[in-house]
Amino acid sequence: MFVSSLNSYTNRVQILLAEDNQKLARLTKQSLVEDGFVVDIAKDGNEAIDKFDINEYDLVILDVLMPEQSGFDVAKKIRKVDTTIPILMLTALGEIDDKVKGFYAGADDYLVKPFSFEELTLRVKSLIRRGKRADPIVLQAGKLTLDTNKQMASYDGRQLTLTAKELGLLNYLLVNKGRVVSKTELIEHVWDMNYDGLSNVVETYVRYLRKKLRQCGASGDFIKTMRNLGYIIEDLHVS
């Protein structure tokens, strides 16, 4: 369970670190433990899945290039059973396509090797802070509701099965309902990235959301596209 004070209770935060480089894994664990976290190490993708199935974690750190199963594969499998746990990818790959692939797999953030342990700790604390369980807030637009505490959305009483990024996108659009949100703003707030031409990421996830909403009976323009401006969910009222 996420804690209410990171400074006082980080020792209660359980982290799964999947890294096949034994020296780097050992040093990374040592740094995180010194900052008060509890860390389990998995040496490959299979062991990461096994440990995740057995234990309860608050955050997962995945190296991309691992034996048995890649970090991308592990992230996808984790997302099938847990849509909310923060996932941080460690990668030596700096190409845009690899970053996009990681986010599509379900990662919430990434860190390119070589990295400083100070930066790693800051990223971890930021992800945990965003993932903390808060007082329940229910966002609504027409027949659509989103319980931000339970991370559950429904339309006209029918539950939507959404990925972590789909939930994040829907959350941000609902928080800003009645206002046009640009692709740049969505990338910066939902994907925590600077805009660098990855507008197809937003378009792809909006398409996913629209499809799932239509399956529950929503109209095709529930999330409206404002040409050259962005997207909007209007401040609808239940009829």
UniProtKB/TrEMBL annotation:
Gene3D superfamilies: 3.40.50.2300, 6.10.250.690, Winged helix-like DNA-binding domain superfamily/Winged helix DNA-binding domain (1.10.10.10). PROSITE patterns: OMPR_PHOB (PS51755), RESPONSE_REGULATORY (PS50110). It holds the Pfam family Response_reg. Residues 136-235 form the OmpR/PhoB-type domain. One of its GO terms (molecular function) is transcription cis-regulatory region binding. Residues 14-128 form the Response regulatory domain. Residues 136-235 bind DNA. The keyword Transcription applies. The modification 4-aspartylphosphate is found at residue 63. Keywords: DNA-binding, Phosphoprotein, Transcription, Transcription regulation, Two-component regulatory system. This is Response regulator.
